[in-house]
Predict the structure.
Amino acid sequence: MTFDRSTGRLLVMPAAVITVVFFVAPLVYFLRFAFERPSRTAFSEPVFTVENFTRLFTSPFHVGALTRTVVVAAAATALALLLALPVAYLITKASPRRKALLIILTVFPLLVGNVVRSIGWVALLGYSGVVNTVLTAVGILDTPVELLRTATTVTVAITSVVLPLMVLTLQASLEAVDPNTERAALDLGARPLRVFRQVVLPQIVPGIAAGTSLVFVLCINAYATPRLVGGAQVPMLAPVVYDTISSDNNWPFGACMAAVMLVVSLAVVALYGTLLRRQFEGWRMAR
Amino acid sequence: MTLPRWLTAVGVLVFGFMLLPVALVVWMSVFDSEFLMFPPPGYSLRWFTGLSRERGLFGGLQLSFVLAVSTAVLSTALGLLAALGLSRARLRWRGLLENGLLLPLLIPAIVSGVAIYIYLYQLSWALQVRLVPTLGALLLAHTTITLPWTFRLVHAGLAGLGTDVERASLDLGRGPWQTLWRVTLPLLRPSLVGAFVFAFIFSFAELEISLFLISPGQITLPVAMVQYAEFRVDPTLAAVSTVQILLVGTLLAVSNRFIRFGQVLSGGVKG
Amino acid sequence: MTALTIDDVSKSFGSTPVLDGIRVDVEAGELVSLLGPSGCGKTTTLNVVAGFLPADSGRVLLAGTDVTTVPPYRRDTAVVFQNYALFPHLRVRDNVAYGLRARKLPAAEVAERVQAALELMDIAELADRYPGQLSGGQQQRVAVARAVAVRPRVLLMDEPLSNLDAKLRQEIRLELRALQQRLGQAVLFVTHDQQEALSISDRIAVLNAGRVEQVGSPAEVFERPRTVFVADFMGVENIFAGEVADGRFRTDDGLELPAPSGGPVGHVGIRPTAVRLSPPEEGAPQDAARRNATVTGRVYLGDSVRYHLQLEPTGTAVVAEQPRGAGTSWQPGDAVTVGFAAEDLLGLQDAPAA
């Protein structure tokens, strides 16, 4: 069945209009504020300036938050990749029934949302949380210690939060690997770990790139986990942006930080895309 | 091929790492104590029955439910129309439209939240109508960010159907609209259910965009939970979290046969 | 010297038995086919030999050494997969070198043997391509080159020709056979195509439901099938159940035929091409049995014509095939005489003697 062009246009119109008016337009519009001066009496003083960016990159607090955010995101992404690889491989090799179950177990925490899981991490690591209780009970600790409010715990918690997406992306990529190529390598004399490194890993590089860039962007923009697990002691970008706009009412500076986050995120995605295309032009045709 | 045992062990540990926080929250929700203490002095369901007294959290639960249902209806409807238009009509700029509808997936939610807030605030001034904070603004924002998912799901469903059955129906004498109503839509039901469930869950758990669009009397559940959790984490918070967990779990279980969640979610951002 | 011995191997998946006491030998320099329909266990057998699947019982020996519990990477076998399973991220050269490098051979020897294998398969000019840039036939050559480069004790081929179009398949079949004979390579060749097995093999093992029904040279298996299954698989379409009594074979629906030579049998078979048709009440002098019959159907096949017939008075259905232009052309409804020569009657058993 085909609709004629005018009907087709009519059908697409509502979705397109909503996306343009309430998503694309705001994105373009808000960038303006990043280049205007904060004002006490209005949203901004409408003059073109790069003061916000100068301030952002000279303020130790903000530079610290930016660096911390990037480092935590990179560490969490690397950790997630390391943990997701074996799990994704296990899921790929599981029998159909077990595979369905394992995928549900992966999707479930993802859909439950990062707020609930961050709350779980607070309960786990807080002063009266599970870890402290257990450690004091068995005598390893005399008194509970502060486990929350450190960049390390924020990294661990964020890793746990983004892990399901990494697993699902890698698993989808692993499913496309012909198991006979693994058999062929084994049969030609390569040991299992060597087969994984030389035959499986190279074939899922696109999936790894997709997973890591996706997860990195999510980490950079994480709000709930740094807020709840890190708090004010571990300032990271997303909460700082929120506070700047909500509490300080400094729209231009908030917009400036949001713009920086946007650029970092898009740059990572674009960079990965380009690298991939160059590296795997040759054999990607095989798919 | 048999897998080495250590691999299975690693798998169990990693699943624990992913699921432990969720399990812990469910466990905490039945503690018979005001505060968190391990092990709990006893178990009780009183935090669930007492939820309605927690004005912030309970209000959030109600608002988020209404918002998620409305978002799911609107987003699925728009996604269906757009998918029909793009897969069954020869439109110019088709690639641009398809990718454009997926754009919100690429933009970090916190950035979108800031942008939409600033934009609507300015628009309110220009139009002399209050746009933020309103329920309408929340609904529109949630709709735009769930639209990529509903569109993608229905679009994939339509592609999977192919046009042969529709041609058969046209050939047997049904007009295009009759064919749509009697053939296409019934066959598309799994995708539509999937899209609805997806939009509902995403809207229900959405935090970052809502952050900027809520107001004191109108707070969504995730925002209310974050605000509460900054103050304290206790069995009440765990109880309301458990309600969310159960809701998502039920929807997931019910709709799992309609939709391959794993496939849809993998590589969420089109690389 | 026996390159490969499959000794009484059994295998079940859950409660489903897939292999039931498989015994096959491959001598050095010999090409043995495992022939059977899908689900007969031939690919499972190959997977057990390669070490991808553990056998539940029985042994696998390579050149006399028991390798039943040896992992695949320490077995001296090489598989050519049905889908070739080339490494998509490696150039042809590196695909072929893979097994040699895994065996930690010196670089110079690797290069030399890769070059030799590429030249052997006539694909030297493709060495720097990726598999995705090759045609199906070229990929097939790379797969063979990769496997023979390691000079395995036994080469395992899993339907290696089934993804090629018919013409190419025939060409490559001949080429593979010539190559195998030149190298003196022992090969276990899995196929479901009886033509392919007949044309390429030194010996054929016909598998059915996880059991070896018959092993023999192509001529033996084709001309003297011993069981109902093998006969049916080899194109013996007319098979009658019955018993031998008083030197005659009496079918269950009352047809009397000369008793076939050999021991007691439960079935008699005859190929459609061995069924002779002649005008009513006539018949060839060498016919050991004659029956009146009615033509019920006629199918034109180009080189030959097939007739579906009903024998009188029993109504037994028989298929006959005559070369085009030979004898009379019959039409449905015609009455004819059907004749069988005694030497064309094949005595068949229900199942192989245990």
